[in-house]
Amino acid sequence: LTATQIDPSGLRLTWQPSPGTLAYDIYRDGLLISSTPGTTLAIGALTPATPYTFTVVARNEAGAVSGPDLTVTTSSDRR
Q: Which of 22, 27, 70, 75 has the fewest Cβ atoms nearer than 10 Å?
């Protein structure tokens, strides 16, 4: 799990595909924020200079397998 394009209010998460996955559930600080069949997600509406923990869970027909957590701190507000 990697974060790129980090700015005061958003970022982009990317992760490696998991074979047999139907969808990925993305959590921010333990709360489900999105589900996607792809391996990238743009996230907005974040607070500047704030740490967030993201988790991606791969879902397949046999159940879910958690990926690693990633803690990201948004950059300082641009003024």
A: 22
